[in-house]
Each structure stands twice: as structure tokens, then as C-alpha cells.
Design brief:
alpha+beta, 6 helices, Aminopeptidase, globular, 16 strands, 3 domains, single chain, seven-stranded mixed β-sheet, about 25% helix, four-stranded mixed β-sheet
């Protein structure tokens, strides 16, 4: 039997309490549930499939939809735990960086990243004693109209550590290896505001360029389809009539200029 929305929230609360060794409070609000405590830095807001909008006033919240919790419960628990206490710490200087193929990258992202696994064009990984512990996936280079002919902008499409690991300096080392090979003018990326309203990437030199608008989804089964117009929505509704709409909090667009 599929657990109810409240049962999922209770299960999340219990799972976090066990791993974080704290007492959490579950509060039923107007159409959604909040999990909170003074011992973790972020409140957690959980939304049922029937609720479209986010609770927008929280500046320190993690926002999770019921369908995400159903599909990726363990990964969500692990990510919240990683934000709240130290996992196994590895220093990037003790790892080896290497190019990795699409198959390895896709498998790692499916196992350890909440969002859809993207193949990208260039993929780099960090290995500790032969074990892959962190990866970064980059797009191909794009010409910029306001830059010289040689200037290329790349996108960091995905970055993640292995679940339960915190690779200190990992992203910086991956970017340095990529930059040495392809000499980008800049690297652009987006951070998910459902998980953080202030990006930690600023610590390694990224600057915030803009806050993007919320993304609209049509959720059908295990899939989330984005749509940008009423026409696209109508097509999705005809294709998957049992689905339902969702909206996230948008993203933070950030750019790292390479010297």
C-alpha cells in the first residue's frame, strides 16, 4: 500500500531523528507540513501532490514535494543529514582527478543526485583509493556575443559527492582540472532554491547574476516534465491525463570568471 502524505512526513521525521540524534517537531499547517527543531539550521517544508505553490517567506528552508519524497526518500534523507552534520570528510588534495565516461557518470548521478542525470559533454571525477567519491559534469562551450572570438562560456550541469561523503575542496579541484584542459572564459551554473536560498558557491568565487523564475512541472508517475506555456501544458495533460502541476522556487544563476 502506498503511504499517505502524512505517513511519508512522519517517516522522514523518524529517519532524520535517528541519523541526526535530535528531537524534531512535526507541524501540520495550511495544506502542508513543517518539520523543525532548534538543533538543525533549516526548517523542512513538505507539500502534498495537491499543493502547487511553495511557502515563499522562508529564507532558511528546504522545500520537498510528496512525489519527490516518494521516489527518492533515501537520497533526500541523506542530503538533509549532509547539510546538518559532518559526513565522512575527505580532503580533495588526497584524491586523484580523472576524466570519466558517460556510463560511469550517469550511474553515479542516479545513485547520488536528486535531479535528473544529465550526460553533459565533459565529465570529471575524484577518486579516493580507487573509489569514485565526487563528480562534475560540464556542457560544451558557448560563444558569447559580447566577448572576443576565443572566449567560451561553459555550464556546470551537475555536481555531487557520493552519499555520506563530504569532499572538502572537491568542486574547486574538479573545476581546476576542467579549466586546465579547456580554458573557459567563465563557468555558469544554477543552484536549486528549493534547497538553499543563499548559495555556498560564493565561497569559491562564483558570483550571483540573477534569481530565475520558478519552474513549472507536470508530474506523471515517476517523471517530471517542464512546461513554459499553456500550449505545452495542454499537450502534457493530453499525454498524461492523470498527472498534476507543480512549481519550484526557481534557481540562483551563478558565474565563475576564470582568470
Amino acid at each position: 500500500m502506498t503511504p499517505s502524505f502524512k505517513d511519508l512526513a512522519i517517516r522522514l521525521k523518524i529517519g532524520l531523528e535517528r541519523q541526526l540524534e535530535v528531537q524534531l517537531t512535526l507541524i501540520e499547517l495550511d495544506g502542508f507540513i513543517q518539520i523543525t527543531t532548534t538543533e538543525i539550521t533549516k526548517n523542512i517544508f513538505i507539500y502534498p501532490n495537491e499543493r502547487f505553490f511553495r511557502y515563499q517567506i522562508s529564507e532558511s528552508g528546504i522545500h520537498i514535494d510528496e512525489d519527490q519524497l516518494t521516489q527518492k526518500f533515501d537520497l533526500i534523507v541523506q542530503r538533509i543529514v549532509a547539510k546538518s552534520k559532518n559526513n565522512r570528510r575527505i580532503y580533495a588534495r588526497k584524491t586523484v582527478v580523472a576524466r570519466i565516461d558517460k556510463k560511469v557518470s550517469q550511474r553515479f548521478l542516479v545513485e547520488h543526485h536528486l535531479q535528473t542525470a544529465l550526460p553533459g559533454k565533459y565529465r570529471y571525477g575524484l577518486y579516493e583509493q580507487g573509489e569514485l567519491v565526487s563528480i562534475a559534469v560540464f556542457s560544451g562551450g558557448r560563444r558569447m556575443n559580447d566577448k572576443n572570438e576565443e572566449y567560451r562560456s561553459f555550464e556546470l550541469l551537475r555536481f555531487c559527492n557520493k552519499s555520506g561523503y563530504n569532499v572538502i575542496g572537491g568542486l574547486s579541484k574538479l573545476i581546476t582540472a576542467f579549466a586546465k584542459d579547456f580554458h573557459p572564459g567563465d563557468i555558469m551554473t544554477y543552484t536549486d532554491r528549493d534547497w538553499s536560498q543563499h548559495s555556498s558557491l560564493e565561497k569559491i568565487g562564483f558570483t550571483t547574476k540573477e534569481i530565475t523564475s520558478p519552474i513549472n512541472f507536470w508530474v506523471a508517475g515517476r517523471h517530471r516534465y517542464t512546461y513554459r506555456s499553456e500550449e505545452e501544458l495542454q499537450a502534457l495533460m493530453e499525454r498524461a491525463p492523470t498527472g498534476f502541476p507543480k512549481e519550484n522556487m526557481g534557481s540562483i544563476k551563478m558565474i565563475l570568471y576564470i582568470k
